[in-house]
Amino acid sequence: MRALVAAAIGLAAALAIVLTVSAIGGPEGTTSPKPLLTTVPTAPGAVPPGK
């Protein structure tokens, strides 16, 4: 019975948090216009390009 009460309290708390965040709204933000420049490492034993 205690586990059922604890689960109900946890569910109510989680629902209250979700409703609060939904009411406040998400943060206003923008994405960067620059792409992420990443490189992929060559596989072991592979010949690097240009060689």
TrEMBL record:
InterPro entries named among the record's database cross-references: SPW_0924-like
Region (Disordered) location: 29-51
Superkingdom to which the source organism belongs: Bacteria
Name assigned to this protein: SPW_0924 family protein
